[in-house]
Amino acid sequence: MAAAKKTKPSAAKGPAEKIYDSFIVGAGISGIAAAIKLKKEGYNNFKIIERADRVGGTWRENTYPGCGCDVPSSLYSYSFALSSKWSHLFAKQPEILSYLEEVSDNFDITPLIEFNTNLQSATWDESRYLWVLGTSNGEHLARTVVFATGPITESKTPVLPGLESFSGEMFHSAKWNHDYDLTGKRVAVIGTGASAIQFVPQIQPKVKELFVFQRTAPWVLPKPDLPLGDRVKQTIEVLPVIQRGWRNAVSRSLNVINFGLRNPKVLRPISTAAKQLLRLQISDKALRKAVTPDFTLGCKRVLFANDYYPALQADNTHLIPHGLVEVDGNTVVAANGERHEVDVIIWGTGFEVSHPPIGSKVVNANGDRLSDLWKDTSPEAYLGAALENTPNAFLVLGPNVLVYDSFIGLAEAQLDYIIDGLKKVKDNDIGKISIRSDVLRQHNAKVQKHLKGTVFNSGGCKSYYLDQNGRNFAAWPWSLAELKRRLSVFDLDDYDVTYRNEAVLSKVS
Fold it and tell me: Which of 125, 236, 240, 298 is the most exposed place for a label (fewest CB within 10 A)?
């Protein structure tokens, strides 16, 4: 691996008007929670920036037909802001976005956010123990930074031969073109992941022909979704204990699933039952064989839907159990040579997760741009939060904290840890805090060792949990309870700590 190019830290332009105790980048699930928790701890000297014109993160960006959550809404909500307004057991995107906006307003976070502001650079200035943050609306200084930019923010579109020759409509599911009418069109959907199984049933009745390109058949289980009528919602509102009981029951059931993911043998009966269920769901033997997964349940993300298989069996739908390899004018070409002329290509090809886009903006204490360091591998962090040689900065929902649970719950647990650290930095007059290299190495070596026996590494699939070298950069190998235990206290002994001296104070006062 070639040495990463060194970048000289930039100095602040002129006298800084203000030095923030903390700077939050992003106003999605994590950024909103970070701001609320900071306020609760009495912090007022912090700033939040958001590149868009409203809060919501991935729930603002993804507006494709049928978009919703595959974690029950009782759990996919903040522990400090339970809601009785959900219309279904599994909430849809508009409701989740509305919920996030409501929480941001109710906790007086929205007025604190500087919208339409992009982070352009974040450079550590060792001479002053400060982060220099260049944004589209000016430069800022902060003692600490929380990168709450999320793991699924940048859509991924493959580069294919002949793609430039396509003259029809083309867009990614995360950037859905609602102005384009799909009625009567011939549509190619590329990918059969979590987004595609939601929007395919929505567009199938409208289009003339639907060609679904499937590289790998996913496990798709029935979704136990039910509407929640006004009477149910009123009961939940009057008796919050019901909602907390519901939330705890969902959490316990997900813990059972997590146990199975760590112990794949436990999942074999479920896999067998799911394959038997396919016999009832799909009558055509050839189609049933094509959609039957050839890897252990849980190796790739388990999907939940009740209308996906019926959509695949519609007369106007054609499942192509191969990847798209070429585009020739308006003809899409599958790996087996099959060719179809289409009017529209919709990419359901997911997001860039192994190389978080925030890495291209951050320059660490050694002058290395993080994206350069991650070029030939995927990032490592301590408890998914602290990056090597990146002082006074924390990443929310970073590497190796993925547990089958609510992202909101994981973000809350991490933020409790991070904000405990921010408090200790402030209360102890710490100038610089950086995760110790030996702690980071030992932690990640242990994580990778214990991941070997999980379904993610041994289930016989190639998933987005694995980087280009086959290293699992995403999953947590133990229980959610163990993750929360490890995140319960920020231990200064795990960090190299430098206290601010009078010389540094005189420069920044």
Answer: 240
Distances (CA, A) of 406 to 53, 409, 429: 25, 5, 35
- The DSSP line for 434-471 is EE-HHHHHHHHHHHHHHHTTSHHHHSS---TTB-TTS-
Hunting for tokens 């070409």 — which residue is that?
333
Question: Residues 457, 460, 466, 469: is their CA dihedral positive or negative?
Answer: positive
293 is a domain residue: no
DSSP state of 402: B
Q: Are 277 and 219 in contact (CB under 8 A)?
A: no
Question: Does the predicted model carry a pTM greater than 0.85?
Answer: yes
* Contact present, 387 and 370 (Cβ < 8 Å): yes
Burial call 388-426: b when 16+ CB within 10 Å, e when fewer: bbbbbbbbbbbbbbbbbbbbbbbbbbbbbbbbbbbebbb
111-131 confidence digits (pLDDT tens): 999 999 999 999 999 999 999
- Say yes or no: 342 and 430 in one domain: no
- If one counts every other C-beta atom within 10 angstroms of the C-beta of residue 79, the result is 14
pLDDT mean over 460-486: 92
CATH of the domain at 329: 3.50.50.60
**Does residue 232 belong to any structural domain of this protein?**
no
Q: Which residues contact 99 (CB under 8 A, 6 or more apart)?
A: 77, 83, 85, 91
Average pLDDT for 380-403: 96
Range of the domain at 488: 19-154+352-435+476-508
Residue 419 and residue 322 share a domain:
no
Question: DSSP letter string over 51-118?
Answer: SSSSS-THHHH---TT-B-SS-TTTSS-TTS--S--SBSS-BHHHHHHHHHHHHHHTT-GGGEE-S--
Calpha distance 334→320 (Å, rounded) = 8
Residues 6+ apart with CB under 8 A from 138: none
pLDDT of residue 356: 84
For residue 446, tell me if it sits in a domain: no
Q: Are residues 362 and 411 in the same domain?
A: yes
| Phi/psi-derived region of residue 40, left when phi > 0, alpha when psi is between -120 and 50, beta in every other case | alpha
Alpha-carbon gap, residue 299 to 196, rounded angstroms: 18
Query: Position of tokens 């589209």?
Result: 136
Please state, for a pLDDT cut of 70, what percent of the chain lies above it: 95
Helix 29-40 with 407-427: angle, nearest 10 deg: 40
Unique residue bearing structure tokens 């647990």: 413
- Do 214 and 361 reside in the same domain of the chain? no
Q: What is the pLDDT of residues 5-63, one digit of tens each?
A: 334 344 444 444 799 999 999 999 999 999 999 999 999 999 999 999 999 999 999 99
**Span 303-345, pLDDT tens digits:** 999 999 999 999 999 999 999 999 999 999 999 999 999 999 9
